[in-house]
Task: structure prediction
Amino acid sequence: MPHNLSAKKRLRQNEVRRLRNKSRVSELKTVRKKLLRAINDGQKQEAETLYRELSKRLDQAASIRTIHKNSAARTKARIALKIKALVPKPASP
Result:
């Protein structure tokens, strides 16, 4: 338990930041899951749209250091390879 005022303030700030970061990481995971689901279903166009959104969110999170910039780059690269290898399924009649 903090004893002086600055330590108490630091504790309050850390809690606010922890919740903010948790929300951002959770949002990243959600978008990533949607994207991977689209890739597994063979929906290339939807996957590309979601990839642009995920890429933007990853860059934003990396710029404010919620995640490391290399982690964001690695995630984007791996998913881009999956999208590139994806053969779109023909539309059913």
Notes: Residues 8 and 68 are 28 Å apart (CA to CA). The domain at 7-85 is CATH 1.20.58.110 (Methane Monooxygenase Hydroxylase; Chain G, domain 1). The first helix runs from residue 5 to 40.
